[in-house]
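Self-study notes.
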Amino acid sequence: MLANKLFAKKIGPMTVIRRQRGFSGMQIFMIVLLTMVLTALASFFIIKTYIFPSPFSPVTLNAKEEQRLDNKLSQLGWQVERKDDRHGGAGKLEPEPYRERDADRKVTFSEKEVNAMIGRNPDFAERVAIDFSDNLASAKILIPIPQDFPIMAGEILRVNAGLDIHLDASRRPVVALVGVSLMGVPIPNAWLGNMKNVNLVGEFGDRGFWTSFADGVDDLQIRDGELYLKLRR
């Protein structure tokens, strides 16, 4: 086949002959080579990110941030054990009169603090990462596949999930599953038991954890980078 072609175009009574140039052999070779390189890079990115993802880097806090987080956890009733506590240091209990202050019912956790709490657990430190945006809590989870599983045994599965968290018009907490994706592919709602966009508090709020949770919360907000919680009296 000739690389160059002739074609005619009529302009009024005259006919103009033009020469149309096709791609040369070198141009075709470069296009094919570029396509192969881009495909290889895209495949490497997909395999590295979704099929064989690297462990997450645990979030760490400096001493001041650790102290601030421990105070918040103590405010919610958690007894935080530090290294010096085990040697009779600053963690020794001191008697004090009981009191309730409205300010003590309000707690704000930053996204960094929540991920640092996860990082304290060695089972989740490199496997779970949390993100906060307006009314949305998102999680990235790395799940190891058992060695006796018939497919991808011993590999790591990447799962992304999102929860819509806010208060409804009656000031009751709403916790609804936005969606779940597996290696970047969204899972159909039918495979999730049709639980997408279903208020878990309303669906299961007549008993157990959700009832206690809803009854004890006066305000709940997920904002960009932080979680705000206010407990009832």
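Second protein, same conventions, sequence then structure:
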Amino acid sequence: MLALSVAALGVVAAAAAPASAEEQPTRAQLIADCDSGAGKCTFNDPELGEAYLGSFHQVSDSLYNCTTSPATQSMTWSDTVGSTDSAGVSVTAGGKIAGIIDLSVTATYSHTWSSTHSESSSVNMTVKPGEVGWISRAQVMQKVSGTWQTHYDDPKWGHYYWFVPDVVTGPAPNGTDGQSNAVVVKTRKMTDEEKQSCSSRSSKARAFVAER
């Protein structure tokens, strides 16, 4: 019964000592103990998946063109992409979780793993009359799968060892597996409400930038 119930949570105990249902930890509790140091944790048998281009997302302010001529402006953009685990929980840089994964990947693949990537630059953007434009970016991403092994000096939830399978998705270096980061300028027609806001502006400020 123990094996069946903990397997349903994606959590497996190594020892055979008895434990009631109330003593079985949640996945979040075990990962929290790894992050806090309450449990001695390793990320075993890491496997890197093939890199892919993540989804595009807005990384700049928006340029609205309320004039009758194309509007061109230099737009600065910045982007920070982080990592999440299979439960959608953020894996932050500098935390124990990120450090443990990095140690495991480095030992197995001889290159480092980073939980976050930040980048910024500027692009000249031209927006047609009656449209709004912005800059979007997509980051090269990669999944790393493995199993968390949590060891306690004294039995916790009835066991010394617990195991949690996990998949972490995070940014990969540009060019990994032939994939490249992408930055594009996107535009769309203004909505009726946005056009109305244009009419309330003075002629000297008919092309304006709105913060994202």
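Instructor comment on the second fold: The chain is about 20% helix and 45% strand.
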